Amino acid sequence: MQTAPLDLTKTALVLVDLQNDNVHSDGAFASSGSAGHAVEQELVPHVKQLLDWARRQSMPIIHNRIVFYPGGDFGGSNAPIFRMIGPESLKLGSWGADALEGLEAVEGEPVLLRNRMSGFNGTGLDLLLRNLGVTTVVVAGVWTNMAVEHTLRDAADHGYRPIIVTDATSSINADWHGAALTYALTNIAEFTTTDELTGADA
Predict the structure, then answer these.
(1) Which residues pair with 137 in a beta bridge?
(2) Domain boundaries of the chain, sorted by first residue
């Protein structure tokens, strides 16, 4: 639950890895269960609701995507998660690396690319947020227990108030999703739902 009201003038929405390969039924990781869990979570409708709300507020919205850079082993192989990515999945410039239909960035919404887990690692996210005077980061996207969790942890470590929208995130399955919410993010982030958050301007 949110512990205090939001100052919407100092809040940004950060969307993580809402890409075809991660979520779409024809994506590279659909067989892992990720596409099915996204449907269970009503991920796309909830993120659309968040986007509509944030745009009405003229809130900063930053899209963050993980990509495989072709031409070399730029992602490394030091951890299993990085060995999962590429050479065709999430390939820069491919349909799989593109945003899900209806969740694309519009003019004025930066799209940051990276090849690490956290949205803060290897991008200008922290600088953009500080330049805007942002103190609260609302995070939605995939996968809850991987890139979303890493981004929230880094947001906390960078001094931001981190908030996760629990029904606008999804993972491989409900167990992995629940592990992040029940254990890993305890005492790290505040939890809210799409309806709770978007009611802030009611």
Answers:
(1) 12, 162
(2) 8-201
Flag residues of the chain having pLDDT under 50. 201-202
User: What is the pLDDT at residue 5?
Assistant: 87
pLDDT of residue 79: 92
Strands 61-66 and 11-16: parallel
Alpha helices in the chain (DSSP H): 20-23, 34-40, 43-56, 80-84, 125-131, 149-157, 174-179, 194-198
Spatial distance between the Cα atoms of 145 and 99, rounded to a whole number of angstroms: 20
What architecture is the 8-201 domain classified under in CATH? 3-Layer(aba) Sandwich (3.40)
Residue 2's nearest CA partner among 201, 193, 195 is 193
Q: What is the pLDDT of residue 109?
A: 98
Location of structure tokens 């805007």? 132
